[in-house]
Amino acid sequence: MRVLLRVLSPLLGVALAAAGALVVFAVARHWAGRPWPTWPDWSWVDRPVLVVGACLAVGGLVLLVVAARSGVSQVPLDDPADGDRVVTTPASLARVVGHRVRAEDGVADASVTASRRRVRVRATSRLHDEATLRPRLLEVARAALADLPMPARPKVSVVVLSPKDRP
Fold it and tell me: Is the pTM of this model over 0.85?
């Protein structure tokens, strides 16, 4: 969702800048004594005006929905008391799991991504192959999540990249 906003924001900015430049151009033409050409005799109930208005309204609603859904994602934790709400971010969750996975013997590097529903671990090892290291890292990642007070545990997937697995 953030990628969509990062694309739409500059486009909207360019559109507003173009509209501003058009207004400046029209005012300059008017001051120079050459007024803007007259528009066709359209009223508010003519079809082209209604179509443009409907397109602008739908586009505005789409932008509003995209902006409303693009907030910072949160992972809920157990509430310590009534009226208190505790959350963490997916990045913090990934950091906790990543520290535990990187501390394991034989792990050269690990990349962890997390969301509310899933934690993905991508580890690199030079000493062990995937068949021996993957179950251990899966257990470590699940244990790291079990230590956190979470009402729902995310699914954990582990991939181990090792030169020993290549033919």
Answer: no
